[in-house]
C-alpha cells in the first residue's frame, strides 16, 4: 500500500493522516527521547506538521516532555499499547 492510502486510513482512524507515521517513529525510539526535528527527518514530514502532531499526542497523555540537554524540546512516550498498535498498523498497511 502506498503512503497516500496509509495516510487516508490514518486520518479515518486516528483523526490525522500523519499521526500513524509519527507515532510509529516514536515507538521505534524504544523509550528514548526524541525531538520534532529528528522525527521530521525520520518520516520525511515537515517540521511544523510533526510539531502539530506532537501537541495532539501530548494532549492525549501518551507523550510527555522530557528534560533536554539541547535547545530542542525532547519527548518521551508514556508506556502504552498505543505505540505497539501504531507500529503494527503501519506494518500491516505498508
Describe, in plain words, how this protein is organized in 3D.
The chain has 94 residues and is mainly α. It has a single domain, classed as Arc Repressor Mutant, subunit A (Orthogonal Bundle), CATH 1.10.10. The chain has helices at 3-14, 19-28, 36-43, 47-60, 81-93; strands at residues 34-35, 63-66, 74-77. It has five helices and three strands, in the order ααβααββα. A three-stranded antiparallel β-sheet has the order 1-3-2.
CATH topology, anyone?
Arc Repressor Mutant, subunit A
Tell me the Rg in angstroms.
12 Å
Number of domains: 1
Largest sheet: 3 strands, antiparallel
- In the CATH hierarchy, what is the superfamily? Winged helix-like DNA-binding domain superfamily/Winged helix DNA-binding domain
Number of helices: 5
Average pLDDT, rounded to a whole number, is 94
State the end-to-end distance. Answer: 5 Å
Strand proportion: 5-15%
Give the CATH class: Mainly Alpha
Specify the overall morphology. Answer: globular
Structural class, from secondary structure content? mainly alpha
Range of helix content: 55-70%
- The residue ranges in which pLDDT falls below 50 over 5 or more consecutive positions are none
What is the H/E string? HHEHHEEH
Query: Which strand order spans the largest sheet, edge to edge or round the barrel?
Result: 1-3-2
Instruction: Please give the CATH architecture.
Output: Orthogonal Bundle
DSSP strand tally: 3
Amino acid at each position: 500500500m502506498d503512503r497516500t492510502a496509509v495516510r487516508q486510513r490514518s486520518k479515518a482512524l486516528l483523526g490525522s493522516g500523519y499521526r500513524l507515521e509519527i507515532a510509529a517513529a516514536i515507538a521505534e525510539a524504544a523509550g528514548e527521547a526524541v525531538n520534532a526535528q529528528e522525527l521530521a527527518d525520520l518520516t520525511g514530514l515537515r517540521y511544523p506538521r510533526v510539531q502539530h502532531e506532537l501537541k495532539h499526542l501530548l494532549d492525549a497523555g501518551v507523550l510527555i516532555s522530557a528534560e533536554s540537554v539541547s535547545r530542542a524540546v525532547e519527548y518521551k512516550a508514556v508506556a502504552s499499547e498505543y505505540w505497539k498498535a501504531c507500529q503494527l498498523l503501519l506494518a500491516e498497511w505498508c
